[in-house]
TrEMBL record:
One Pfam family this sequence matches: Sua5_yciO_yrdC
GO biological process, one term: tRNA processing
Function recorded in the entry: Required for the formation of a threonylcarbamoyl group on adenosine at position 37 (t(6)A37) in tRNAs that read codons beginning with adenine.
Protein name per UniProt: Threonylcarbamoyl-AMP synthase
Keyword Amino-acid biosynthesis tagged: no
Enzyme class: transferase
Domain YrdC-like: 13-201
UniProt family annotation: Belongs to the SUA5 family.
Length: 330
């Protein structure tokens, strides 16, 4: 089997009807979102969710984000506190996932939440939201890639990785944000906002809208309560070396801001996330450039320092997970 690709700019109605048909069959569909491409399936069906895990090779203790078309749909399945609702009203649709308590009668299947009593909900922009509205059920949709590998930001990335396992890929062009959503959870008693994963919405923007600073974890989480919290994640085949100031011969180089790097003339490939030091551009290019560096054949990818502010926090989070020891490594 090789996946069919439908371009939403050429066949927008067929892209909705074909995806809805596949979803009703309990099969996953790769869909574009503003963050990355997602592997979407009916969040209320155990068989559909199991096929996501099977396709990705994903550990079932890692929960899935469930996508809704608006706040009203979210309220069918989860309970909003005042701060969470304010965040949803401010930033949805957009790259923000909010972890909320499940309603007691929620139809979202426990496989999607990894058995937790909470669910991460997000309202995406554009095609994904239109599809969810037409389907009239939430879609569980982790990134459309083999688990732990680099997230896809184009239909071509999905085809190269999972094309033989899927029936349908919807092509919406390059993902404009380029990194996954920011994930937060609000303590309903205190209103404290906990940043579980930095992402495509800067933490400073959330703090500004909420009128309070976000709390960050001091160290690795003991419990996986949201996607993207595994220590090793978003990993290319090559090893990743961070904060590189010089290059060893044959390494692939990913730099930022046109920074000169000692020895770069001996690099296998040189890629610049943003020559103008634009963090939004760097975020949009991150996964594509990791894939290009990996495809160069270099055994190691060296990445120069990136400012840890704004979207730089999300970029550095993904790079740290890409560089973390893999299974069987120390």
């Amino acid at each position: 089997m090789t996946a069919e690709i439908i371009d939403i700019t050429r066949e927008p109605q067929r892209a909705i009807s074909a995806a809805s048909r596949v979803l009703h069959e309990g099969l996953p569909v790769a869909i574009p979102t503003e963050t990355v491409y997602g592997l979407a399936a009916d969040a209320t069906r155990a068989d559909a969710i199991s096929r996501i895990y099977e396709t990705k090779g994903r550990p079932q203790f890692n929960p899935l984000i469930c996508h809704v078309c608006d706040i009203e749909m979210a309220e069918r399945y989860a309970v909003f506190d005042p701060v969470s609702r304010q965040l949803a009203e401010t930033f949805w649709p957009g790259p923000l996932t909010i972890v909320l308590p499940l309603k007691k009668d929620s139809a979202i299947h426990p496989l999607a939440t990894a058995g937790l009593e909470t669910v991460g909900l997000r309202c995406p922009e554009g095609y994904a939201s239109d599809l969810i509205r037409a389907f009239d059920r939430p879609l569980a949709a982790p990134s459309a890639n083999t688990s732990g590998k680099i997230s896809p930001t184009s239909a071509r990335h999905v085809m190269d990785d999972l094309g033989a396992k899927l029936e349908l890929i919807i092509d919406g062009g390059a993902s404009p944000v380029g990194v996954e959503s920011t994930i937060v959870r609000v303590d309903p008693d205190t209103g404290t906002i906990l940043l579980l994963r930095p992402g495509g919405l800067a933490a400073a923007d959330i703090a500004r809208a909420a009128g309070r600073d976000l709390k960050r974890r001091a160290g690795p989480a003991a419990i996986i309560e949201a996607p993207g919290m595994l220590a090793s994640h978003y990993a290319p085949g090559a090893a990743v070396r961070l904060d590189a100031l010089s290059i060893e011969p044959g390494e692939a180089l990913i730099r930022f801001g046109a920074a000169p790097v000692e020895g770069m003339e001996a690099a296998a490939i040189v890629l610049d996330l943003s020559p103008s030091s634009d963090l939004a551009q760097a975020a949009a290019n991150l996964f594509e450039y990791l894939k290009r560096a990996d495809a160069s054949g270099a055994a190691r990818i060296a990445v120069t320092p990136i400012p840890n502010e704004g979207l730089g926090e999300a970029i550095n989070d993904r790079l740290a997970r890409a560089a973390a020891p893999r299974d069987g490594e120390e």
